[in-house]
Write a structure and sequence with these properties.
The longest helix is centred in the first third of the chain and has 21 residues. This protein has a 5-stranded mixed beta sheet with strand order 3-2-1-4-5, with helices on one face. The chain has a domain of about 70 residues: Nucleotidyltransferase, domain 5 (2-Layer Sandwich), CATH 3.30.420.270. About 35% of the residues lie in helices and about 20% in strands. The termini are far apart. The chain is an alpha/beta fold.
């Protein structure tokens, strides 16, 4: 045979090209994570951090630190928390049968207020 048949070689190149095109976007990860280390912390904080609690009842009623508030008041209250403390910690507690959209609404308001230390818990405090 005097001619070189490059058709199988072109098929291989195309398959490799498709594989690289599919796998390359997954190589870049834009998610910032703070992974725990196996080492003990250098020193324990002198006092426990102050936690603020937002309780959501099944009907969508809200309590901020056991004080009844309305959803429209929360952005101002969260802004006041952010001004009073440099990095406030907020725990959002929902009743077991609460509609999750109420929880998401509170978390969205926390994000808009630039409060990043947010915890989730179940069961409203009594």
């Amino acid at each position: 045979m005097h001619e070189l048949n490059i058709t199988p070689l072109m098929d291989l190149v195309m398959v490799l090209l498709v594989i690289f095109m599919i796998t390359t976007p997954q190589l870049s990860n834009d998610l910032d994570l703070s992974l725990p280390t196996g080492k003990a912390p250098a020193q324990r904080p002198a006092e426990k951090p102050k936690l603020h609690y937002v309780d959501v009842d099944p009907q969508g009623g809200l309590l901020l630190n056991r004080q009844a508030v309305k959803l429209v008041e929360l952005p101002k209250l969260f802004a006041a928390l952010k001004q009073a403390e440099t990095d406030p910690s907020v725990v959002v507690r929902g009743a077991d049968d609460v509609d999750y959209r109420h929880i998401v609404g509170v978390i969205d308001l926390l994000q808009q207020a630039d409060i990043t230390k947010v915890g989730l818990a179940t069961g409203v405090a009594k």
